[in-house]
Amino acid sequence: MDIQLAFILALTFVIHLIGTLAYAFRIAGIRTGNIAIAFSLFNILVLVSRISNSFQAPFLAKRVETAIVDPALHHLALDFALVIAAASLATLAGGLLIPSFQRYSTAAVGAFRRTRSVPRLMVRALTPRGMVLLSESAALPRYANVWQLRLGGAVPAGIVLLNVAVTALWTVGVLAAIYAGSLEPQFRVTASTLSAIINGLATIMMFVVIDPFLAGLTDDVAAGRASERDFRRAVIWMVVSRLAGTLLAQALLFPSALLIAWVARLI
């Protein structure tokens, strides 16, 4: 593995880790009663994710360009499979870190209420006391919360399955567009701009169905109309379905790239 590929894998890991840890901030918002503050603080991590995303695509595109010039230089099919595998590993790691991170983010929300300053909060997080709090927040998912999982009730099976599909499409969207450039080198610039063909459907499903469902459940728990146990169950199913979606993305990469390459030739 060369340095460029290792950097791409690291960026992918960060992107999907942050995406999974979003659920921890929802829990922190519920427990503190400060949902808006929790989401505002999470936006700091979103900035890190977006910066990582802005670097990931150009580095992947450069890898495809060099492989077109010298096919023996990179094994693109394996490289892209490793990138998706990094997404799966990050999702699994994020799921395991949610108990720790929700405790830490709960403390961060409380600290922000006192300081009302993000820069001051970030400085405090880097102090020895902040590091001690981080270590004290360490916790693993409770076995009882996992083995008692069942679909239905607060977590409809349709939402879980839809989240699998959304995650798979989002994971593969940009990757397929870039990979399509290796299938149709003469249209590689056009192909690289067509990720919306894959991501567009995922975006619609996310913002029309999944995100409103989670927002409604969050408000229900905050208002006492649903239990925190129901929300934890929903979070676990969201993480499991995200993981399943990244695994499904492995199978969708090549067909999606073929679709984008066909559209690039057609338009």
Automatic annotation (TrEMBL):
Topology in the lipid bilayer is annotated as: Multi-pass membrane protein
Q: State which residue ranges cross the membrane.
A: 6-25, 32-51, 80-101, 160-181, 193-215, 235-264
Q: Where in or outside the cell is it found?
A: Cell membrane
Entry-linked InterPro entries: Amj
Task: Identify a single GO molecular function assigned to this protein.
Answer: lipid-linked peptidoglycan transporter activity
Q: Which UniProt keywords apply?
A: Cell membrane, Cell shape, Cell wall biogenesis/degradation, Membrane, Peptidoglycan synthesis, Transmembrane, Transmembrane helix, Transport
Biological-process GO terms, alphabetical? cell wall organization; peptidoglycan biosynthetic process; regulation of cell shape
Involved pathway(s): Cell wall biogenesis; peptidoglycan biosynthesis
> Which GO CC terms are listed, alphabetically?
plasma membrane
Judging by the UniProt lineage, the source's domain of life is Bacteria
- What positions belong to coiled-coil segments? none
The record ties this protein, via HAMAP family, to: Amj_flippase
Q: Which family, according to UniProt?
A: Belongs to the Amj family.
Query: What is the documented function of this protein?
Result: Involved in peptidoglycan biosynthesis. Transports lipid-linked peptidoglycan precursors from the inner to the outer leaflet of the cytoplasmic membrane.
Please identify the protein, giving its name as recorded: Lipid II flippase Amj
Task: Give the species.
Answer: Aquibium oceanicum
